[in-house]
Design goal:
heterodimer, A: 148 residues, 1 helix, B: 482 residues, two-stranded antiparallel ribbon, 18 helices, 3% strand, globular
């Protein structure tokens, strides 16, 4: 009687532990996935069209130079607002300065009505523009570009 | 983020059908068998402790259970081969334990009241489980891609609202049971449309937030260092709040109102990542609580019996006090399956209070194990939501998982007097057709989302086996020539 009682509880916990074991084995798979897959997937998806998809956004000049943000499909907000993806501390940047977002397979930059404007290469961004790989986007003193 | 070759342990490699990603269906089958074994063991223990003969009934319940989940497993194998391997076994275990407990409560009630006064709930529950599994399979079959749902979002939203409002509008003899107007009685059957409305509204809200989420991140005025949302963006949350209050007024259903509001808040937070929405929601919630307590008698009674179940033993606190007695009797290890006194809980021992019965018979340790199973279930759902590629799937998956956890929190919290009792059923455990059906649909959607999350991209050449340690894999990826 006591034995069956304890035995059932033990079995119940064994189920939980077995489930956690599966979770653990999956955890490693997930970690591997996180590191390697998005880029791999995107780049191979794009390969058929003869290009490479950007995987990260890199700040090349300015106070934040060296900062990298990996692109996961969500739009990147740039500005002085605290909740921006890239928070600029720059007198020439507006609170909500620009947005870089994914449409289809391409990334587009658009200016959100900033005071001093956003420049892609040398052209001022007035309407959403497609951002090619490696093209500098200038916002105030900050320059960013997309890299694969 | 599907992987062309998630680096699963080599052991799982043998189960791959296509050779690209492990589907883990074998793991699922093994876990299902484990759950079936546990359920049969539990049934046998109950029979032995109740000094029953090993009757045909036992065989019937056990077989029904086995066949059902074998069929469900086959359906998953067929229509969602990359689905998460743990979701279905967890559900199977919870449902199985639920069936055993309901059967066990039937025995106790028959013993106390005689078989004439008491219609057994277990056969009914087996029937509902069958129907629910059918529905589960139908959802898997006819919904090959969860993103289709977002196209009909507004229709779903409307349907959900109608379903939610229906029992409140209908005359009481069609919709009222034990004081709560949440039923729809159709002849022999009675269902709670609110359970389904919950899922429909969640689909709507997820799709709505995906398309409108930018609006909710716009900051309004800044007060005391906090960015308040603009007043006009408050519309949807106020609307949801209004609906919840209406549910409390017209249907006297605290649980659904709480659940609904909690899910809306969670989705809003997940979509915007802004804590201020939670703050706004909690403020509204507090206002709602005070209002409800002041205005509605049934809420006031609930709170009073929560504060002092023993003082109100003769009136409103009877069941809560009995639930607490049950937990106390169970203690650490429980009295053993079939050796408790669930008949002391009287009505709703097999629905709202089933966790108290489990707490008595399996003790703290057993109940904790079951709560952990719930946690794993929700965890797997959330993980699928994180891994899936589209934001609608993310929100829907997150919302569905959150619903599960929220429900179990409301039930267990209510029964253990952590929070006032709200009268909601424990998903998969409690007797009750609507809850079972709705939760099976919920699980089917979760499986669909997890299938989409883990399914490798078609047209992608399988990556050369990524069995190497993660750190190394990373290096390889960075050095790939561009």
């Amino acid at each position: 009687m006591q034995l069956t009682r304890a035995g059932f509880l033990a079995l119940l916990w064994l189920f939980v532990l077995a489930a956690l074991r599966v979770v653990r084995s999956d955890l490693y798979a997930a970690a591997g996935l996180r590191v390697s897959v998005p880029g791999f997937r995107r780049s191979s998806a794009k390969k058929s069209r003869g290009g490479k998809a950007p995987r990260q956004l890199v700040v090349t000049h300015g106070a934040l130079a060296g900062t990298r943000i990996s692109l996961d499909g969500r739009p990147i907000m740039i500005g002085r607002a605290d909740d921006s993806t890239l928070v600029l501390d720059d007198d020439f940047a507006s609170t909500r300065h620009a947005r870089i977002s994914l449409r289809g397979t391409d990334w587009y930059v658009e200016d959100l009505g900033s005071t001093n404007g956003t420049y892609l290469d040398r052209a001022k961004v007035t309407a959403p523009l497609r951002v090619p790989l490696g093209a500098p986007i200038r916002i105030g003193k900050t320059v960013i570009e997309l890299r694969s | 983020m599907a992987s062309p070759g998630p680096a699963g342990p080599p052991a799982q490699g043998s189960e791959q059908p296509g050779g690209s990603a492990p589907t883990r269906r074998g793991t699922e089958l093994a876990m299902l068998a484990f759950a079936a074994g546990l359920m049969t063991g539990a049934l046998m223990l109950v029979e032995v402790n109740q000094e029953q003969q090993l009757t045909m009934r036992l065989v019937w319940y056990g077989l029904a259970y086995l066949v059902l989940f074998a069929v469900a497993h086959a359906a998953v194998r067929r229509w969602a081969p990359y689905a998460d391997p743990l979701i279905l076994p967890c559900v199977a275990l919870l449902n199985g334990i639920g069936l055993v407990m309901i059967y066990r409560i039937d025995l106790a009630l028959t013993e106390r009241f005689g078989s004439d006064d008491w219609s057994a709930a277990a056969p009914k529950q087996v029937l509902w489980t069958t129907i629910a599994t059918g529905l589960f399979i139908a959802v898997l079959k006819f919904l090959p891609d969860h993103r289709t749902l977002s196209r009909y979002a507004y229709m779903f939203g409307l349907a959900g609202l109608v379903l939610l409002a229906l029992p409140g509008m209908l005359p009481a003899q069609l919709s009222e049971v034990n004081g709560a107007k949440i039923w729809l009685r159709l002849g022999a059957f009675s269902i709670q449309p609110g359970e389904f409305a919950k899922i429909l509204l969640m689909v709507f809200f997820a799709a709505f937030l995906v398309s409108k989420r930018d609006l909710f991140t716009v900051a309004g005025r800044r007060v005391l260092g906090i960015d308040l949302p603009r007043a006009r963006d408050m519309g949807p949350i106020l609307f949801a709040w209004g609906i919840c209050v209406a549910i409390m007024v017209f249907e006297k259903d605290l649980g659904t109102a709480l659940l609904f509001f909690g899910v809306v808040l969670a989705l809003l937070y997940v979509a915007t990542e802004r804590f201020i929405w939670v703050g706004v929601g909690l403020t509204l919630f507090a206002v709602g609580c005070v209002l409800a307590y002041q205005l509605f008698g049934h809420v006031e009674r609930r709170v009073e019996s929560w504060l002092d179940p023993f003082g109100l033993y003769e009136t409103g606190g009877y069941q809560l006090a009995q639930a607490l007695f049950a937990f106390a009797t169970g203690g650490m290890f429980g009295t053993g399956l079939g050796a408790g006194r669930p008949d002391m809980l009287l009505y709703q021992a097999n629905s709202d209070f089933i966790t108290a019965v489990i707490g008595e018979e399996l003790g703290f340790i057993g109940l904790t194990a079951l709560l952990l199973v719930y946690m794993i279930l929700a965890l797997r759902g959330l993980r699928s939501a994180v891994a899936v590629r589209d934001s609608f799937g993310k929100l829907l998956g997150g919302g569905l998982s959150f619903t599960l956890i929220m429900q179990i929190f409301l039930v267990v919290g209510g029964v253990t007097t952590l929070i006032p009792l709200t009268g909601i059923t424990a998903p998969f455990l409690s007797a009750g057709g609507s809850s079972l059906l709705a939760n099976y649909v919920l699980v089917a959607l979760l499986l669909r989302i997890s299938d989409a999350a883990r399914r490798p991209q078609t047209g992608v050449k399988p990556k050369p086996v990524a069995q190497a340690p993660i750190a190394e894999a990373h290096t390889v990826m960075v050095e790939r020539p561009s």
